Amino acid sequence: MIYLLLSILCSTLIFIVFRTYSRYKIDNHSAIVVNYLTAGVLGFIINGKSISTTEIIEAPWLINGLILGTLFILIFNVMALTTQKLGASVSSIASKMALVIPVIFAVIHYGDALNFLKIGGVIFALAGIYLSTVKPKKVKQAKDKSLYLLPLALFLGSGFLDTFIKYTQNYHLRANGADDKVFTSTIFLTAFSVGFIYVLIKKRSTFLQTKNLIGGFILGVINYGSIYFLIQALSLENWESSVVFPINNMGIVLLTTLSSILLFREKLNRVNKIGVFVSLIAILFISLA
């Protein structure tokens, strides 16, 4: 249970750090690239033993790690673009609703138990996420209708990431957790490599600014923790992935909402408050299931 709580805490801190970026005028992409480098190196340091290149190349999870790393930075950019073009509400709803994909996959592929409490919990979860993030002002209709493919790509991409992480953990990582740190580091270093190539192509001079390096380092430590602790939670006995993912997502929504109120003085409208309450019901249902 402690691993799941730590994953929720780290994921919430990511949103808090992003909120401070605008205050200190930190370049998002530059900090994000540094964040992936930090998280990747941190994993190898925490591993506590020397890892040969041959060991990584011959690892059964290598291809999966490269795919996940590439998708991490691509989907993160899709999230940023969706927020800029269609609004933060659309982006938030699309990414959080993606929890449906790993839950459905877990029931179909892994044979996770399905009962009325779990079904009700998922339904309440989706409703709670929507109500918690909806804003009073409607998103204006974009002139280019193709922009509405962005939320769909974000929804499918986020859901695929969660599902593929669990799939890799089930079939390619050793049960004793010996691969977890190296696997996580490989994902982050792959994301860094892809992001750094973009920096070189675009010749972004802001990359080496001190504030971007510091902001990226802090984010990297937190980001590594969010993924590592989630993988540890998924490895626990008697904890089905169809339970872990919804609770993880709901916990992030609730803790982020509370943090926003206390730290940034954000106000919740009536619909948002209903969403928070519905989310609590969802967590209760899924936990009882």
Q: Tell me the structural class.
A: mainly alpha
Strand count, sense and barrel status of the largest sheet are:
none
Shape: globular
- Unreliable segments of 5+ consecutive residues: 138-143
Q: Average pLDDT value?
A: 78
The level of helicity is over 70%
Total number of helices: 12
Radius of gyration, in angstroms, nearest whole number = 19 Å
Number of strands: 0
> H/E order of the elements?
HHHHHHHHHHHH
Percent strand: under 5%
Alpha-carbon distance between the termini? 16 Å
Briefly say what this structure is.
It contains twelve helices and no strands.
Characterise the protein shown here.
The protein is mainly α. It contains twelve helices and no strands. The chain has helices at residues 2-23, 28-47, 53-57, 62-86, 88-96, 100-109, 116-133, 149-171, 180-202, 210-234, 241-264, 270-288. The longest helix is centred in the first third of the chain and has 25 residues, at 62-86. It is globular, with a radius of gyration of 19 Å. 44% of the residues are buried. Residues 138-143 have low confidence and may be disordered.
